[in-house]
Amino acid sequence: MAESTISAGPGQSQSGSGVPRLQLKNISKTFGAVRALANVDFEVYPNEVVGLVGDNGAGKSTLIKTMSGAYVPDEGDIFIDGQKVTIASPQDSTRLGIETVYQDLALCDNLDVVANLWLGREAKQAIIPGVIGTLNETEMERLTLEVLRSLDVKIPSVRLPVATLSGGQRQSIAVAKTILRKPKVVLLDEPTAALGVAQTRQVLNLILRLKEQGLAVVVISHNLHDVFEVVDRVIVMRLGKRAGTFTIKNTTPERVVAAITGAEFGDAPA
Amino acid sequence: MKNRTIDPKETSSQSQSGLAGTVAPANVEKRSLRTILRGDLGFLPVLFTLAVIAIFFYFTTDGIFLNSRNLSNLTQQIVTIGILSIAAVLVLLLGEIDLSLAAVAQASSAVTVVLSVYQSWNPWLAILAGLLTGAVIGVINGFFIAVLRVPSFIVTLAGSIGYAGMLLVVLGKQTTLIVRDETIRALSPNYLDPILGIGLPALAVIGYAVVVILEQQSRAKAGLKVKSPTQLALQLGGTAIAVALIVFLFQSYLGVPQSVLIWIALVVVAALILKRTPAGRHLYAVGGSGEAARRAGINVVLLKIVVFGVASTLAAFAGIMLASRTTAVATAVSPTLLLSAIAAAVIGGVSLFGGRGSVWAVVLGSLVIGSLDNGLDLLNQEQSVKNIVQGVVLLLAVTVDALVRRANASKGR
C-alpha cells in the first residue's frame, strides 16, 4: 500500500490496488438552497474497510444514500468494478450488489432470527408446483446457522424473537441479512452508535469478518476509536466536500479530527 | 483475539446442536420448554381461565354444563362469533382494526337472502354474491387505509355506520326477512354423518402427524436440532387424544355439527396460511414493523388491501352462517357481535398492537365468551349479570396476559 499524505482537497488516496469495487466521481447533490454534496469522489476496493467520517451535516449520510439508491445525484457518475452504472432506486442498488444497513436496523421484533434474515426472500417448497408453496423452514434455518457461523456471530437460539437479543446481536443480524444476498459492497451507517463495549467489540469483529470474505465495506462512524480499530482508510467529509484521505496505519486520530473540523494542523507530513 | 479464528472443526454437524458455541443440548431443551410456557404462546392463561369457568359451571349447574348436549349447543352458538373473530385476528395481526365487521356480516347476508327470496337466485350464486359484497367492501376499506393512509379506526367506524345503513336499504321496508331456501337453511344446523364426523378429523390428525414427522426427518438430515421422541409423542399423541375426545363428545349427542366443522376448517386453513406460507409471514412482519417489511421488498399496500378484503369476505360468510342458523336476516345489527369477535381474539392472546398471536386464539377466546354466555343462561341469569361477568372476565384475561408479558420483559426476554 502506498504512503498516505494529508490532503486538504478532494482526496488522492493510495494508488494502484486495482479497480475499485465501487467508485463515485464528481457527485453533487443539492436540496433547495443547501449544497449537500459538491464534486465528491469516493472509492472503495474489495477486501477493504473504508471509514467515512465527518461532523454532523458534512454529507456522510447523503453520500451513503446516493450509493444505496435512496437519493439520485444531480451530477456525477457511479462505477462498479469499472463499469458505469445508474442507481435510480434502492432496488437498483441491491441488484448491483450494494447492501445497506441503516441505523434503525429494519428488523421485525416479533419475528425470530431466521424469519428476519429471510424476510421478503423466503425459501419455498412447492406443494402444488406453480400454485401453492410453503415455507421451507429447514433450509432457511440451516443456511441461517451457516451464515452466522461464517460471521462468527453467536446467538443463543435462532428461533427466539429478535426483540430478546442484545443491541450487538441485533446489529449482527441486520448485517448478516445483507450477506445472504452475496453483495459486493456493504454500507454500514453508524453500526456501533448505541452499543456498549462488549457489543461494539462483537460488531467490529463482524466488520473484519466481512472484509475477510472479500467484501468492500464502508462504515460511517462518529467514533474515531472504533474507526481506527477496523478501518483501512479514512475518508473525511466536511461541508459537502471530501476534505481528506488517510491510511490508518500512517496517521493519528488527531490528524483526522483536524480534517473533520478544518483546523490547521501544521506542516508536518505523515 | 479469540474471536477472529473460525475453527473448521466446529462446523461438523451434530444432530443435537447446529451452532458453534451453544450450550449443551440438555440445557437448550429445558430452556425452550420454559420459554414456550412464558413466551409468545400465551395460551396458558386462557386455558386456565377456560378450565376455571368450566369447573365453576360444572358444579353450579349440577354437571349439566359439561354434558354433550350442552357442549354441542354451546359450540354451535359461538360459530358466528368464531368466524367473525378469524377476520378480526387477520386485521389485528396487521396492527390495524376493523370496526365494520359486524355490519358487513349482516349487510352481506341480507344481500344473499334478498337475492334468494325476491330474485329467486340459485342459493350458491346468492351466497357467492353475498361473499362478493364482503370482498368489495373489504377492498374499499383497504384502499382508504393502505393507499390514502386514513387510520383504520376511522375508516371502519365510518363503514360500520354506512353499511348498517346499506342493510336498511337492501331489506327495504321490512325489518326481518325469513330465509326460505333449503340449501341456505341447511348450512348451519346439520349434523354430519359419522363417516364424515369421525373421518374428517381423523384425516386431519393423520395429515398433521405426517407433516410433523416429515419435517423432523428433513431437519435431522440437515443437521438441525430435532425434537426428542418424548416431545414428539406428547405433541402428536396429545393432539390425537384431544381431537378424539372432542369428536367422541359430539358423537355421543347428535354428531359433529356441520357449522362447527366449517368453522374449525376455516381456522385450520387460516393457521396454515399464517404460519406456513410467505404471505402469512409477511402479514406478521407488517404487524411487527411496516417499515422493515417495506425495506425487505414486501408490497405492504397490496398486502393490507388483500387482508381487509379477506377479512370482510369472512365476515360476510359469518353473516350468512348466522342467517342460516336463525333462518332470518334483520335490520338490527347486533350491538355486541363486533366487540365479542374482537374480545375473543384478544382473550385468546392476539395483541391489539399487531404482530403477535395465533389464529387458534379464536377458538379459545370464543369458547370463553360462549361458555360464560351459556353457563349464565343455564343459571337463569339476567342479561345485566351476563354483561358484567363477561366484562370482568375479558379484563382479567387481558390483564393476566399483560402481566405475563411484563414479567418476561423485565427478565430480559
Describe the model.
- The complex is a heterodimer of chains A (270) and B (413).
- Chain A is of the alpha/beta class and 270 residues long.
- Helix content of chain A is 29%, strand content 27%.
- Chain A contains eight helices and twelve strands.
- Chain A starts with 21 loop residues before the first strand and ends in a 9-residue tail after the last helix.
- Chain B is mainly alpha-helical and 413 residues long.
- Helix content of chain B is 72%, strand content 1%.
- Chain B has helices at residues 25-38, 43-60, 68-77, 79-93, 101-118, 123-147, 152-171, 182-187, 194-221, 229-251, 258-276, 278-288, 290-295, 300-326, 337-347, 361-378, 383-410, and strands at residues 176-178, 328-330.
- In chain B, helix 16 runs antiparallel to helix 17 (383-410).
- Chains A and B meet through strand 8, helix 4 and helix 6 of A and helix 1, helix 9, helix 12 and helix 13 of B.
Descriptive keywords:
heterodimer, A: 270 residues, alpha/beta, Rossmann fold, four-stranded antiparallel beta sheet, disordered N terminus, B: 413 residues, mainly alpha, ABC transporter involved in vitamin B12 uptake, BtuC, two-stranded antiparallel ribbon, 72% helix, globular
Q: What's the rounded overall pLDDT mean of chain B?
A: 84
- The helicity of chain B comes to over 70%
Number of H- or I-type helical stretches of chain B: 17
Tell me which CATH architecture of the domain at 22-107 and 165-261 in chain A applies here.
3-Layer(aba) Sandwich
Mean pLDDT of chain A: 85
Domain unit count of chain B: 1
Radius of gyration of chain B: 23 Å
N-to-C span of chain A: 14 Å
Give the N-terminus to C-terminus distance of chain B in angstroms.
29 Å
Based on helices, strands and strand pairing, what is the structural class of chain A?
Answer: alpha/beta
Instruction: Indicate the CATH topology of chain B.
Output: ABC transporter involved in vitamin B12 uptake, BtuC
Based on helices, strands and strand pairing, what is the structural class of chain B? mainly alpha
Shape, per Cα inertia axes of chain A:
globular
Give the overall silhouette of chain B. Answer: globular
Q: Which pair of chains has the greatest number of interface residues, and how are they split between the two chains?
A: A-B, 44 and 44 residues
